[in-house]
Amino acid sequence: MTLASFISSGTSHAVLNGLLFFAFVLWLCLGFWAYKDAKRRMEDPLFVGLSVLVALVIPYIGPFIYMLFRPPEYLSDVRERELEIKAIEDRINAADHRCPVCHAEVDESYLVCPVCTTKLKQACVSCGAPLEPIWQVCPYCETPIEPAEPGAPPALGTRRPRRAATRR
Ligand SMILES: [Zn+2]
Ligand SMILES: [Zn+2]
């Protein structure tokens, strides 16, 4: 049997059809794979669609082009890492106190920030202990806490009316 007669024979047609069908299925599978992979790596449906388009429009080469440009990480891994970082940050924030103005590290007992001199806490008039803003009484010496001590700079929003100040 010569090559020419093989090509024109029915067997060759069946083989060719089989190969074409296999190529078609492979093309579809690669497109589906690109869709599944892109969905795990990209949030934007536009980019997922674009990835599938590249994989399908350029048969067999497209998926490799997609592989070159796809994000290196799965979204689930990115989210997991973000959560871990947030947990670490929360732990750090809970462990040390920072100045609300300049974010310098400050001790819990500081009355003012040593870096930017922002008033952090009120001192007890009797024992000088640093007081939390919500406390009504000093827990160290039982002295009731005045809303604003005379001489101390009033906190924002608690400035006394001018008439009261002149009468004093
Ligand atoms: Zn400060
Ligand atoms: Zn006190």
Concise synopsis of the structure shown:
The protein is mainly alpha-helical and 168 residues long. Helix content is 51%, strand content 5%.
Describe this entry's structure for a reader.
This protein is mainly α and 168 residues long. The protein folds into two domains: 3-73; 96-149, no CATH class. The chain is 51% helix and 5% strand. It has six helices and four strands. It has helices spanning 3-8, 10-41, 45-57, 62-69, 75-95, 162-167; strands at residues 97-98, 105-106, 122-123, 130-131. A two-stranded antiparallel ribbon has the order 1-2. Strands 3-4 form a two-stranded antiparallel ribbon. Helix 3 (45-57) runs antiparallel to helix 4 (62-69). The protein is rod-shaped, with a radius of gyration of 36 Å. It starts with a helix and ends with a helix. Residues 156-166 have low confidence and may be disordered. The site of one zinc ion has 8 residues, from loops.
Looking at this protein, list some descriptive labels.
168 residues, mainly alpha, 2 domains, two-stranded antiparallel ribbon, 51% helix, 5% strand, rod-shaped
What number of domains?
A: 2
Distance between the termini: 122 Å
Low-confidence stretches: 156-166
Global structural class: mainly alpha
* Net shape: rod-shaped
How much helix, percentage-wise, in residues?
Answer: 40-55%
Report the β-strand fraction as a percent range.
under 5%
What is the succession of H and E elements? HHHHHEEEEH
Rg, please? 36 Å
Overall pLDDT, averaged?
84
Which sheet architecture does the biggest sheet show? 2 strands, antiparallel
Query: How many beta-strand elements?
Result: 4
Strand order of the largest sheet: 1-2
How many alpha or pi helices?
6
What ligand species are in this complex?
A: zinc ion
